[in-house]
Amino acid sequence: xFERIALVGIGLIGSSLARVIRRxxxxxxxxxxxxxxxxxxxxxxxxxxxxxTTEAKEAARDADLIIVSVPV
Length: 72
Hints:
Rossmann fold, 29% strand, four-stranded parallel beta sheet
């Protein structure tokens, strides 16, 4: 189990990962970062994470695992 996982990008893939991480108890804390404030608000409404930010650097701080799921 990880203490803190950061998800950068919370679209279809990121949100699916967040749900699995939560369901399986793979992390004590899930930090979510996305540039869109409306997406961030929706992720919070769905309870996908424990902390939410528009700054990837902030979400990644002290993370044991960082997952980047953004378009390339």
